[in-house]
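In response to reviewer comment 3 from the previous cycle, which asked for concrete evidence that the modeling workflow produces usable outputs, we include below a single protein chain processed end to end. The sequence was submitted unchanged, and the resulting structure tokens are shown without manual editing.
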Amino acid sequence: INVVIDSDTPTLIVHEDTHPQFLQERLRVGIADDFSAGGDSALQFASSLAASGAHCDFVQIHVQDGGELRTAMKEKPYGKEHDAAVFSARLGQLHDETAAKMAERNRSLKEVTLSTGGTVQTSLAFGNVGTEIDRSCNAFRSDFVIYGRHRMFHKENLVVGKVPFKAMLQQNRGIIITP
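The workflow returned the following structure tokens.
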């Protein structure tokens, strides 16, 4: 863990039971993007990977924990008969705003990846960050996931931001943590 904390270069970590297929024709790569500097770093690394000639398909993953939605619902006291409709409308609006931000953030990655014959997809979810990243990676069948080194790296609890380090390694895929 100290290597990850102090490293100025991306660090690849694999669980002893992980067998990523790095030499296969096309890699499937998840990118955890929390819209922070860590997410920027993960997207930049993915762009560099694509620019190096690696044949990759990417999925940019963003998870909202719902806090913003809960706050919006508390700001206006709606009658119970309207709660479901208001909640649905606000959820749709939040989804659209976040999807637009994701598209803006991955624009340069798409340009590089498409020029090498790869693809970039997005996965937006609401819920527990670790669970939803894992769910998106399973659906995409990611070979590994890129995380930016989060400013909230807690060595004592082995947590990068809101994602437990143990959860990163529990699946049969490698992880790359970028500086």
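Strands lie at 11-13, 27-32, 56-64, 119-126, 144-148, 153-154, 159-160, 163-164, 174-178. We consider this sufficient to address the reviewer's concern, and the full set will be provided in the supplementary archive.
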